[in-house]
Amino acid sequence: MTVDLAALAKLASEATPGPWRWAADDYMGAWVVMRERPSFEADSPADAAYIAAASPDVVAALCRVAQAAHVIVDRPGVWDAGGSDWWDAHDALRAALTDLDR
Q1: Is the pLDDT at 87 greater than 80, yes or no?
Q2: Cα end-to-end span (Å), the chain
Q3: Percent of the chain with pLDDT over 90
Q4: Smallest Cα–Cα separation from 60: which of 91, 16, 1, 90?
Q5: Which of 14, 49, 65, 90 measures 20 to 30 Å from 40, CA to CA?
């Protein structure tokens, strides 16, 4: 599987900011994903919960983690050198992971 992280991050930045949530719409008999008002109808509560969990802020944070990890994995010399490049890559990954814990 190939994921275009730049395209995914762009989509996340252009979408309605999160966090999103989901709820049952008793009047319509459906499950909806919403921020302030319902904006998407899902086929099941599991679909609604998943879509809400993957709100743009979450997707953007996951993209940052993946991009920071790529710097480390795609540049093996960064690990061998142990110099400032290694610490820059380490700090970028740590910051991206910290965003996920907020």
Answers
A1: no
A2: 28
A3: 0
A4: 16
A5: 65
